[in-house]
Specification:
- The structure is a single chain.
- The radius of gyration is 24 Å and the shape is globular.
- It has 18 helices and 17 strands.
- A 6-stranded mixed β-sheet has the order 3-2-1-4-17-16, with helices on both faces.
- 34% of the residues lie in helices and 20% in strands.
- The longest helix is centred in the last third of the chain and has 18 residues.
- The protein has 2 domains: 193 residues, 3-Layer(aba) Sandwich (Rossmann fold), CATH 3.40.50; 212 residues, 3-Layer(bba) Sandwich (FAD/NAD(P)-binding domain), CATH 3.50.50.
- It is an alpha/beta fold.
- β16 and β17 form a beta hairpin.
- The protein binds NADP nicotinamide-adenine-dinucleotide phosphate.
- NADP nicotinamide-adenine-dinucleotide phosphate binds next to α8.
Amino acid sequence: MVDDGTPPPPAADHPLRVAVVGAGPAGIYAADALTRQSEVPVAVDLVDRLPTPFGLVRHGIAPDHPKMRAIRDTLHRSLDHPLVRFVGNVEVGTELPLEELRAHVDAVVYTYGAALDRHLGIEGEELPGSLAATDLVAWYTGHPDADRATVEAALTGVRRAVVIGVGNVALDVGRILARTGAELEPTDMPQHVIDALAAAPVEEVTVLGRRGPAQATFTTQELRELGGLAAATVLVDPADLELDAETEARAAADRNATRNLAVLREWSAHAPEPGRTRLRLRFFSRPVRLLGTDRVTGVEVERTAVDGDGRAIGTGEFEVLPADLVVRSVGYLGTPLPGLPVDGRTGTVAHDGVGRVLRDGRPSPGEYAAGWIKRGPTGVVGHNKHDARETIAALLADAADGTLRVRGPVDDLVRTLRARGAEPVLLDDWRAIDAAEQALGASRGRARTTLHEREGLLAAVRAAAARGR
Ligand code: NAP
């Protein structure tokens, strides 16, 4: 504070302190945007509840997509910036109440994504053998909070799986289930994941769209990849590809739909091949309920037609698809942090269009949002760059016009956390985890094996600290 009590504008010796909540792509791009400018001196704490950075790049992008996962190398450069401090293993909202965090910094940027699965709201959804894609993805990427017992019980003995939804996550799940052990072997999946997937006797995976192929949200590159699996044949019913003139015309105006249809038409000539997994892409099928008593035995679907507005309309024709595993891949949902309201329907934080958080309809000073918690669960990693830049531009404009001021000396966040027995994981600690994962991978001839338990991650940190690094 200056003598008259007016908070000073940010300067090199008292920078604007910004906490970014969530060290996934949106958070890292936000940190990057903050440190790429020199108008407003900043110091950034990038806080994550996991001891590891990268969010969905680590625990979302499928492990059999190493090229996509390599984006972490680019993201790492922002983590390495001297004005950015990674503070992992700290849960904002519980371990570190939001109010307390806000008192420690001048601005908070929420970038914690959308971790919850959307529900279908149909009978049987909670039966054993019915999993949310988020559960399966967390498990196969080695997320420390994954429910191993439930997922592994659901996978045991699976011959026929149905994946509900035709987005890219559904394709990830269908592809991973249809892969052979040999295909999974070089990935960074934990060993128990590779073993469980290799042991599941999967013969058929059906990926189910409630609307038509022209409305599927998967992208062509991801679709096409299914055609290259070592021991699976993609099957498409030619009848699903007979579209009316209006749908054809609409699809022709949509590049992704046009390309998808071309790939699907090529595959519609395929026939099942003995000894190969059948990977069926089935459309116009709306799940009505999951059948079974002790565990899932099938999915009842209703045949649909798509109306002029692109909506699925039931035809009254029902059919049961036998299944001993059902994976619901119908989108993600953002959740509130204690102290931060989130719209229950959209799963997003109310904001002014460019990322200033609204409370009671008005911008809340010092609160911003970026990524999926701002715009909803759509888009690939790269979309977060523009999104985060937009939010940080609003934050910097607020700093420039005095809306956002440096509030004065406060205790250091990490010191405060440590004083109360928390174990924040900083950048060097993360490097120790990184090295331990690479060493574990090397011992099995792989580039990396993900450490999947929080204790294992923290043990790597403690071991490095004991060695004096
Ligand atoms: P998504 O693309 O929104 O797909 C959700 C799917 O669920 C849609 O097919 C949707 O059908 C269906 N669905 C929703 N409610 C349903 C219901 N009640 N019954 C049946 N089906 C229902 O979302 P996502 O697959 O979760 O992916 C999230 C984002 O991550 C996307 O932007 C995606 O592209 C991205 N991503 C990218 C990659 C990659 O680039 N490789 C990988 C994974 C994820 P309707 O269209 O009919 O609603």
